[in-house]
Amino acid sequence: MRTVVITGSNRGIGAAVARTLIKQGERLCLAVRDPKALSGTDLDPDLLPDRLVSCPYDARVPEDAQRVVDTALNRFGSLDTLIHCAGILRRTPLLFNEEQRAEPDELWSVNVMGPWWLTRAAWPALIDSGRGRIQVLVSMSGKRCKGSLAGYTASKFALMGLCQTMRNEGWDQNIRVTAVCPGWVNTQMAAGVKTMPPEQMTQPEDLASLCAHLLTLPAAAVPFECAVNAALEH
Known about the structure:
The chain has five helices and seven strands. With 234 residues, the chain is an alpha/beta fold. The protein has a single domain (3-228), classed as NAD(P)-binding Rossmann-like Domain (Rossmann fold, 3-Layer(aba) Sandwich), CATH 3.40.50.720. The chain has a seven-stranded parallel beta sheet with strand order 3-2-1-4-5-6-7, sandwiched between helices. It is globular, with a radius of gyration of 17 Å.
């Protein structure tokens, strides 16, 4: 049994991962903006108090990272897995207008610094576990640039670089890192996409199955990068 922290787990990919890992028998700390929103859902911690706990988490607030780690350790006594699903999409172009001035900093704060702060806070526990795992939902936008989403793409390229450093720093401590890089996923974030119907996108449940399977692999078989394509990429 693993103790897993999942961010952004009240909907979308995070929620799908949480549901799959609960079925797999893991213990979860759900780090969400509004824990009250979990009440009455299938991810309500009251349903499984021995294996589910929630914690307020805003990726933009560095102090929340330690709160999440402390919550997991206080409830379960250990922490060996982080799954970073929290992220935002802003369509900030290269030549952004005055109304978009704050967007590059917001993208950096949530998409890069959020995972950075939480990984930093959890690092001692991951080392102590002897079998640390980190999964980061990066996006194909962390591997290539298509279109004009300058702000989002820049944040995801930076996140991929952060993942590479996590891998390097954690290797000798038996911490393994996987950057999961999907294209469009059928979530609220992709609701405005006109180039692909939702049914042709990668489904959250399929990404959840992938994330769950990765946790069953031995250290010598954990891939660093998983590119998940819903469309042909060049």
